[in-house]
Structure formats: structure tokens, C-alpha cells
Amino acid sequence: MCRVKVGAGVSVARGTRVSPFLSKMSSALERDTLQVARDYVEFCLGIQRDPPSESARAMRHLAKQTERQQQATLHSLVQNFLDNHALDLLSSLQQVMAALVHDGQLNWGRVVALFAFIGMLAHRLSLQGDNIRRLAETIARYLSEEHREWLLQNGGWAGFLAFFHTARNMDSELSNLFFVSTDRWSAMHSK
After folding, report:
1. DSSP 101-116
2. Is residue 145 one of the residues assigned to a domain?
3. β-strand 10-13 against 3-7: which pairing, if any?
4. Mean pLDDT for the chain?
5. Residues 134-140: what's their mean pLDDT?
6. Which residues contact 37 (CB under 8 A, 6 or more apart)?
7. Rounded-to-integer distance, Cα 118 and Cα 138, Å
8. Confidence at residue 6, expressed as pLDDT on a 0 to 100 scale
9. Looking at the domain assignment, is residue 41 inside a domain?
10. Is residue 97 in a domain?
């Protein structure tokens, strides 16, 4: 397969339509965010390969741990999301992401909860035969555009690694962060 470079170290298969987000992606933060998002979505779809970075490896671990610990809650949220937003998944997903930080207080626990949700959503959509390619771009765009300053202030993906090393031994705190996030999601979708 021949690959074409589209900027910032990102390449795609020749003939693949490049989204506007990818074509204007330029910073290392955006590139790293997309890399972690793509890796996690592909990992959730069963694509077996080594993670492209330590941040991606850490996200796999924490988000899958969150999925296991909160399986019933996440399953319910994903089903509710699909029942209520089947026609326009990507813009509805942006609304869910915004609801996650309704109080303006993004934290790594909420980022992990978002990835866990996206992973379960990607898996469910793939079982239905839906195209999930844009899910990773949607979460990457949201984080690197809407929360760029927060990511930078918190050390970017290197800061996430520091969180990972602390959170591995703090399962209950991670679960608490998750429940705070999902309470808002549930309230948004129960109306």
C-alpha cells in the first residue's frame, strides 16, 4: 500500500479522502492526541498491534480498566446514546463530550471516561456494520481544539503518563471521577 504524507508526520493510503482536521493538523499535541485516539479505537475493534506510544499504552490500560469496572453504566450510556442520536452520531458525540465538562473542569479521569465511552461506542457501531473511522478524529479534534489550553497546562500526553502512574494504584478515585462524569451524561440523555 502506498502512503502519502499530509503534514505533521501523518500519512494516509493513496486515494484516501483526507478530512479537513487531518489536513490542517500541525502541532505535536494534535498529532499525539489523534495517535492516542486512533490507537484506542482500533484496539477496541480488536486490531492487534503494539501501541504507538507510552501514552497510547497507558490509555489502553486505564480506559479498558474503566470499561471493566463500569461495564453496566457504560453499556447503558452507549445504548441510550445510540437510541437517541442514531441519525447524527458525530455532532451528537460532540454534545456528549461537551456535557462531560459542563462545569469547565476537565481532568484526566474525565478524559479516560470519554475514551472508555468512545471505545464501547466504536465496538457497538462496528457490530452494526457502521463506519467508525471518524470517531477517533472527533475525539482528537474536541480535545486538541476545545481543550488545547488545558492539555498544555497539564503537560499534554506526558502529563497523562504521570497521571497514569499515579492512577494505577488509585482505582477507587478513578471510579469516582468516572461516576461524576457519567452522572452528567445520564442526566443529559434522560430528558
Report:
1. TTTS---HHHHHHHHH
2. yes
3. antiparallel
4. 78
5. 91
6. 115, 118, 135, 136, 137, 139, 140, 143
7. 10
8. 35
9. yes
10. yes
